[in-house]
Specification:
Blueprint: E1 3-6, H1 12-23, E2 27-32, H2 39-42, E3 48-52, H3 58-67, E4 75-78, H4 96-116, H5 118-122, E5 128-132, H6 147-166, E6 173-178, H7 195-207, E7 217-219
Parallel strand pairs: 1-2, 1-4, 2-3, 4-5, 5-6, 6-7
Helix pairs in contact: 1-7, 3-4, 4-6
This protein binds NADP nicotinamide-adenine-dinucleotide phosphate.
The site of NADP nicotinamide-adenine-dinucleotide phosphate has 28 residues, from α1.
Protein backbone atom coordinates (compact mmCIF):
# COMPACT_ATOMS: atom_id res chain seq x y z
CA UNK A 1 0.00 0.00 0.00
CA UNK A 2 1.14 3.52 -0.76
CA UNK A 3 2.60 5.82 1.90
CA UNK A 4 1.99 9.54 2.44
CA UNK A 5 3.83 11.86 4.82
CA UNK A 6 1.89 14.99 5.80
CA UNK A 7 3.33 18.00 7.62
CA UNK A 8 1.10 20.06 9.93
CA UNK A 9 -1.45 17.25 10.15
CA UNK A 10 -3.05 18.01 13.53
CA UNK A 11 -5.73 20.41 12.24
CA UNK A 12 -7.22 21.97 9.14
CA UNK A 13 -6.19 20.80 5.69
CA UNK A 14 -3.40 18.53 6.96
CA UNK A 15 -5.75 16.73 9.35
CA UNK A 16 -8.24 16.09 6.55
CA UNK A 17 -5.48 14.77 4.27
CA UNK A 18 -4.46 12.36 7.05
CA UNK A 19 -8.10 11.30 7.57
CA UNK A 20 -8.86 10.70 3.91
CA UNK A 21 -5.63 8.88 3.10
CA UNK A 22 -6.01 6.66 6.19
CA UNK A 23 -9.64 5.91 5.26
CA UNK A 24 -8.44 4.89 1.78
CA UNK A 25 -6.06 2.35 3.27
CA UNK A 26 -2.83 4.30 2.78
CA UNK A 27 -0.01 4.17 5.28
CA UNK A 28 0.02 7.67 6.79
CA UNK A 29 3.00 9.26 8.50
CA UNK A 30 1.28 12.22 10.13
CA UNK A 31 3.64 14.86 11.50
CA UNK A 32 2.82 17.74 13.82
CA UNK A 33 4.45 19.98 16.39
CA UNK A 34 2.81 18.46 19.44
CA UNK A 35 1.53 14.88 19.08
CA UNK A 36 0.41 14.78 22.74
CA UNK A 37 -2.10 17.56 22.06
CA UNK A 38 -3.24 16.21 18.68
CA UNK A 39 -6.43 14.51 19.86
CA UNK A 40 -8.28 14.53 16.52
CA UNK A 41 -5.24 13.15 14.74
CA UNK A 42 -4.78 10.49 17.43
CA UNK A 43 -8.39 9.39 16.94
CA UNK A 44 -7.89 8.50 13.27
CA UNK A 45 -7.93 4.76 12.74
CA UNK A 46 -6.00 2.80 10.15
CA UNK A 47 -2.33 2.48 9.26
CA UNK A 48 -1.28 5.80 10.78
CA UNK A 49 1.80 6.79 12.71
CA UNK A 50 2.04 10.22 14.36
CA UNK A 51 5.52 11.77 14.46
CA UNK A 52 6.69 15.00 16.07
CA UNK A 53 7.98 17.60 13.63
CA UNK A 54 8.26 21.35 14.05
CA UNK A 55 8.98 22.73 10.59
CA UNK A 56 10.67 25.81 12.12
CA UNK A 57 13.41 23.42 13.26
CA UNK A 58 15.24 22.64 10.03
CA UNK A 59 17.56 20.19 11.80
CA UNK A 60 14.52 18.24 13.03
CA UNK A 61 13.41 17.77 9.42
CA UNK A 62 16.74 16.14 8.58
CA UNK A 63 16.59 14.06 11.77
CA UNK A 64 13.14 12.66 10.92
CA UNK A 65 14.29 11.91 7.37
CA UNK A 66 17.22 10.00 8.88
CA UNK A 67 14.89 8.12 11.24
CA UNK A 68 12.73 7.10 8.30
CA UNK A 69 15.71 6.05 6.19
CA UNK A 70 14.66 3.15 3.94
CA UNK A 71 10.96 4.08 4.05
CA UNK A 72 9.50 4.71 0.60
CA UNK A 73 7.20 7.77 0.59
CA UNK A 74 4.86 7.92 -2.41
CA UNK A 75 3.46 11.35 -1.64
CA UNK A 76 5.32 13.94 0.41
CA UNK A 77 2.66 16.50 1.35
CA UNK A 78 4.21 19.75 2.47
CA UNK A 79 1.20 21.37 4.09
CA UNK A 80 2.24 23.13 7.31
CA UNK A 81 2.00 26.88 6.92
CA UNK A 82 1.28 30.16 8.69
CA UNK A 83 -0.35 33.43 7.71
CA UNK A 84 0.62 35.80 10.52
CA UNK A 85 -0.92 38.96 9.00
CA UNK A 86 -4.20 37.74 7.55
CA UNK A 87 -5.80 41.18 7.57
CA UNK A 88 -3.59 42.08 4.60
CA UNK A 89 -2.12 45.38 5.82
CA UNK A 90 -0.46 47.73 3.32
CA UNK A 91 3.35 47.73 3.14
CA UNK A 92 3.54 50.25 6.01
CA UNK A 93 2.01 47.68 8.38
CA UNK A 94 4.33 44.82 7.56
CA UNK A 95 5.47 42.83 10.60
CA UNK A 96 9.06 42.01 9.69
CA UNK A 97 9.62 39.63 12.61
CA UNK A 98 6.55 37.61 11.67
CA UNK A 99 7.73 37.67 8.06
CA UNK A 100 10.99 35.94 8.99
CA UNK A 101 9.05 33.16 10.79
CA UNK A 102 6.67 32.82 7.86
CA UNK A 103 9.55 32.61 5.44
CA UNK A 104 11.13 29.85 7.51
CA UNK A 105 7.84 27.92 7.85
CA UNK A 106 6.31 28.45 4.41
CA UNK A 107 9.40 28.48 2.18
CA UNK A 108 12.62 27.27 3.77
CA UNK A 109 11.13 24.30 5.65
CA UNK A 110 9.28 22.77 2.67
CA UNK A 111 12.39 23.10 0.51
CA UNK A 112 14.50 21.53 3.25
CA UNK A 113 11.99 18.68 3.60
CA UNK A 114 11.81 18.07 -0.16
CA UNK A 115 15.59 17.71 -0.23
CA UNK A 116 15.82 15.68 3.01
CA UNK A 117 13.11 13.23 1.87
CA UNK A 118 14.19 13.09 -1.80
CA UNK A 119 15.50 9.52 -1.54
CA UNK A 120 12.38 8.34 0.29
CA UNK A 121 10.26 9.75 -2.53
CA UNK A 122 12.39 8.52 -5.42
CA UNK A 123 12.40 4.99 -3.99
CA UNK A 124 8.56 4.91 -4.01
CA UNK A 125 6.10 4.00 -6.78
CA UNK A 126 4.37 7.36 -7.19
CA UNK A 127 7.27 9.76 -6.49
CA UNK A 128 5.18 12.87 -5.76
CA UNK A 129 6.17 15.98 -3.81
CA UNK A 130 3.11 18.22 -3.39
CA UNK A 131 3.34 21.58 -1.63
CA UNK A 132 0.23 23.36 -0.43
CA UNK A 133 0.71 26.81 -1.87
CA UNK A 134 -1.98 29.46 -2.33
CA UNK A 135 -3.73 31.15 -5.21
CA UNK A 136 -2.93 34.39 -3.38
CA UNK A 137 0.75 33.83 -4.29
CA UNK A 138 -0.04 34.52 -7.95
CA UNK A 139 1.81 37.68 -8.99
CA UNK A 140 -0.51 38.12 -11.98
CA UNK A 141 -3.59 38.15 -9.74
CA UNK A 142 -2.05 40.01 -6.81
CA UNK A 143 -4.40 42.77 -5.59
CA UNK A 144 -1.77 44.10 -3.12
CA UNK A 145 -1.51 43.67 0.65
CA UNK A 146 -0.47 40.72 2.83
CA UNK A 147 3.14 40.98 1.72
CA UNK A 148 4.19 38.42 4.32
CA UNK A 149 2.04 35.47 3.31
CA UNK A 150 1.96 36.11 -0.43
CA UNK A 151 5.72 36.54 -0.74
CA UNK A 152 6.52 33.38 1.24
CA UNK A 153 4.16 31.28 -0.89
CA UNK A 154 5.44 32.87 -4.12
CA UNK A 155 8.97 32.02 -2.95
CA UNK A 156 7.81 28.48 -2.16
CA UNK A 157 6.55 28.20 -5.74
CA UNK A 158 9.83 29.45 -7.12
CA UNK A 159 11.85 26.97 -5.04
CA UNK A 160 9.63 24.00 -5.89
CA UNK A 161 9.56 24.96 -9.55
CA UNK A 162 13.37 24.99 -9.48
CA UNK A 163 13.47 21.63 -7.71
CA UNK A 164 11.10 20.16 -10.31
CA UNK A 165 13.79 20.86 -12.91
CA UNK A 166 16.70 19.78 -10.73
CA UNK A 167 15.01 16.46 -9.82
CA UNK A 168 13.58 15.77 -13.30
CA UNK A 169 15.89 12.82 -13.99
CA UNK A 170 14.87 11.17 -10.72
CA UNK A 171 11.34 10.63 -12.06
CA UNK A 172 9.67 12.74 -9.37
CA UNK A 173 6.57 14.86 -10.00
CA UNK A 174 6.73 18.07 -8.02
CA UNK A 175 3.64 20.24 -7.90
CA UNK A 176 2.24 23.21 -6.02
CA UNK A 177 -1.44 23.02 -5.11
CA UNK A 178 -3.89 25.84 -4.49
CA UNK A 179 -6.61 24.45 -2.20
CA UNK A 180 -9.05 27.33 -2.71
CA UNK A 181 -10.51 29.21 0.26
CA UNK A 182 -11.10 26.51 2.86
CA UNK A 183 -12.93 26.55 6.23
CA UNK A 184 -10.05 26.00 8.66
CA UNK A 185 -8.56 28.13 11.43
CA UNK A 186 -6.60 29.94 8.72
CA UNK A 187 -9.40 30.20 6.18
CA UNK A 188 -12.04 31.14 8.77
CA UNK A 189 -15.71 30.09 9.04
CA UNK A 190 -16.85 32.08 5.97
CA UNK A 191 -14.52 30.32 3.54
CA UNK A 192 -16.13 28.92 0.43
CA UNK A 193 -15.16 25.27 0.71
CA UNK A 194 -15.11 22.52 3.31
CA UNK A 195 -11.84 20.69 4.02
CA UNK A 196 -13.59 17.48 2.86
CA UNK A 197 -14.31 18.92 -0.61
CA UNK A 198 -10.97 20.63 -1.05
CA UNK A 199 -8.89 17.65 0.05
CA UNK A 200 -10.93 15.21 -1.99
CA UNK A 201 -10.32 17.38 -5.09
CA UNK A 202 -6.59 17.71 -4.38
CA UNK A 203 -6.27 13.97 -3.78
CA UNK A 204 -7.85 13.34 -7.18
CA UNK A 205 -5.29 15.65 -8.79
CA UNK A 206 -2.43 13.86 -7.02
CA UNK A 207 -3.88 10.50 -8.06
CA UNK A 208 -3.97 11.50 -11.72
CA UNK A 209 -0.51 13.06 -11.94
CA UNK A 210 1.83 12.17 -14.76
CA UNK A 211 5.34 13.33 -15.72
CA UNK A 212 3.79 16.16 -17.81
CA UNK A 213 2.49 17.71 -14.57
CA UNK A 214 5.96 18.16 -13.10
CA UNK A 215 6.47 21.79 -12.02
CA UNK A 216 2.81 22.86 -12.31
CA UNK A 217 1.02 25.27 -9.98
CA UNK A 218 -2.45 23.73 -9.92
CA UNK A 219 -5.78 24.91 -8.56
CA UNK A 220 -8.00 22.32 -6.81
CA UNK A 221 -10.17 22.16 -9.95
CA UNK A 222 -7.21 21.07 -12.06
CA UNK A 223 -6.64 24.39 -13.86
CA UNK A 224 -3.27 26.14 -13.84
CA UNK A 225 -2.82 29.10 -11.51
CA UNK A 226 -0.98 31.91 -13.31
CA UNK A 227 2.40 32.57 -11.72
N1 LIG B 1 -7.42 27.56 4.52
C1 LIG B 1 -7.24 28.18 3.37
O1 LIG B 1 -8.17 28.83 2.85
C2 LIG B 1 -5.93 28.07 2.64
C3 LIG B 1 -5.85 28.65 1.36
C4 LIG B 1 -4.67 28.56 0.65
C5 LIG B 1 -3.60 27.87 1.19
N2 LIG B 1 -3.69 27.32 2.43
C6 LIG B 1 -2.50 26.61 2.94
O2 LIG B 1 -2.87 25.32 3.36
C7 LIG B 1 -1.99 24.89 4.39
C8 LIG B 1 -2.81 24.43 5.60
O3 LIG B 1 -3.58 25.54 6.00
P1 LIG B 1 -4.86 25.40 6.96
O4 LIG B 1 -5.93 26.19 6.35
O5 LIG B 1 -5.07 24.00 7.33
O6 LIG B 1 -4.30 26.24 8.20
P2 LIG B 1 -4.48 26.04 9.78
O7 LIG B 1 -5.85 25.56 10.05
O8 LIG B 1 -4.02 27.30 10.40
O9 LIG B 1 -3.44 24.87 10.09
C9 LIG B 1 -2.07 25.09 9.89
C10 LIG B 1 -1.33 23.82 10.19
O10 LIG B 1 0.07 24.08 9.98
C11 LIG B 1 0.75 23.70 11.19
N3 LIG B 1 1.98 24.43 11.40
C12 LIG B 1 2.18 25.77 11.44
N4 LIG B 1 3.47 26.02 11.73
C13 LIG B 1 4.08 24.82 11.88
C14 LIG B 1 5.38 24.41 12.20
N5 LIG B 1 6.36 25.30 12.45
N6 LIG B 1 5.66 23.08 12.24
C15 LIG B 1 4.69 22.18 12.02
N7 LIG B 1 3.42 22.49 11.75
C16 LIG B 1 3.13 23.80 11.67
C17 LIG B 1 -0.25 23.96 12.30
O11 LIG B 1 0.16 23.28 13.46
P3 LIG B 1 -0.07 23.90 14.96
O12 LIG B 1 -1.44 23.45 15.37
O13 LIG B 1 1.02 23.31 15.77
O14 LIG B 1 0.00 25.40 14.85
C18 LIG B 1 -1.50 23.39 11.65
O15 LIG B 1 -1.51 21.99 11.72
C19 LIG B 1 -1.07 26.07 4.71
O16 LIG B 1 0.15 25.92 4.04
C20 LIG B 1 -1.85 27.25 4.15
O17 LIG B 1 -1.01 28.32 3.81
C21 LIG B 1 -4.84 27.42 3.17
Amino acid sequence: MATVLVTGSNRGIGLEFARQYAASGWRVIATCRNPDAAAELGAITGDIEVRKLDMMDLGAIDALAGDLDGTAIDVLLLNAGINPQPEAPPSGGTDYVAWADAFRTNTMAPLRAAVAFAEHVTSSEQKVIASISSGSASIERNPGGNYVYRSTKAALNLCMSGLSKEFKDRGTTIIMLSPGWVRTDMGGPNAARSPEESISDMRAIIEGLGPEDNGRFVHYDGTDVPW
